[in-house]
Amino acid sequence: MTEESIEKENRMGGAVDEEFFREINVEFLIHELKDPISVIETAVRMLLEKPDKYGLLTNRQEKTLKRALRNSKKARNLLADLLEVGRSDAGCFQCCRFDPVSAVDEVFLEALEASDVGLWETLQDVGPGAERTAVLRQSGIRFTCSDDARCVQLCQDEAKFRQIVGNLIKNGLQHRRQRLEVEMDCRKDLLVIDVLDDGPGVEKENRELIFQRYTRLKACVMLSRTGHGLGLAGARILARHLGGDITVRSHPGAGAAFCFTLPLKFEKIF
Known about the structure:
By secondary structure, this protein is α+β, with helices and mostly antiparallel strands. It folds into two domains: about 1-90, Helix Hairpins (Orthogonal Bundle), CATH 1.10.287; about 95-270, Histidine kinase-like ATPase, C-terminal domain (Heat Shock Protein 90, 2-Layer Sandwich). It is about 55% helix and about 15% strand. It contains ten helices and seven strands. It has helices at about 5-25, 25-50, 50-55, 60-90, 100-115, 115-125, 130-140, 145-150, 160-175, 230-240; strands at about 95-100, 140-145, 155, 180-185, 190-195, 245-250, 255-265. It is globular and about 55 Å long. The N and C termini lie far apart (about 55 Å). Mean pLDDT is about 80; it is low at about 5-15 and about 215-230.
């Protein structure tokens, strides 16, 4: 087979693959994947939590199962994220009143469990309050909230709000060198959440590219910011569907500051 014919066959194969993936019902696929992942997660939990029924575990077995559990959670959360983005594109929202400070606190712990298990386990031992704040600050993490933000109640889609904040915090935890700051404030009729890290930053020409789905950046210090191509992109899509937005300020080598703004009350923009 000649080099030209091989290249032609590869082009044809690529076209078939693209057509195949365009025709897939993604929402159906997500629902089909959720069940087996839930079964795996439940089975691992039972092995960890019921030694009287399934037998005692060695330290190595326990560590391996905990790693499997964390990754099954990641897979389940990714599917949930994809589903929320699809529902937003379709105009599906479920709004309710909720406390954004409590929601952000819970989302932060979930993000920390996925990125720094050691620190997360330490926080489980100390519990909430001043002691937790002290442990986080020793690790370079600070969460500040204005009095106005503490008093506010959001009337928004809580699941989508949690997904947006979770993606921004995971991004910050992944790229920080030593410092991560999460700041909450209210400005007029907006809730403002800033997530600041001291990581590699974002080049000016890439500040919009990192919000585009499936973008592959050229080799640069920000290559890993894109993740699987849906983290930051999905967060901005959701934010804009909820009437808000996400912007980034950054200088290469000097960290990045992501600003999430959201109206206190949801108003459908379709």
